[in-house]
Specification:
It is built from two helices and four strands; from the N terminus they run βαβαββ. By secondary structure, the chain is an alpha+beta fold. The protein has one domain: Ribosomal Protein S8, Chain: A, domain 1 (2-Layer Sandwich), CATH 3.30.1370.110. A four-stranded mixed β-sheet has the order 1-2-4-3, covered by helices on one side.
Length: 73
């Protein structure tokens, strides 16, 4: 599974860079993707909103890690 680890990124950096990363991985057919968000509720919100805006499906059922989000195309 492809993984994007956001540890060490500031919220503003994620808002700027994540949409492009998702497009690159989509074009490479690298799904599902595990996005490591850590415990920050603000980071999780940013990631969820970005993914939903880009049209990706968040798979909460399959995810067993509260510090990560799983995406399906």
């Amino acid at each position: 599974m492809t993984e994007i680890d956001l540890h060490g990124f500031k919220h503003e950096e994620v808002e700027d860079k994540l949409p492009n990363l998702l497009i690159v991985h989509y074009n490479m057919n690298n799904f599902p993707i595990r996005i490591i968000t850590g415990k920050s509720e603000k980071m999780k919100k940013i990631v969820r909103e970005t993914c939903e805006t880009q049209g990706f499906t968040i798979d909460d059922f399959w995810n067993d890690n509260p510090g990560a989000i799983i995406l399906r195309s």
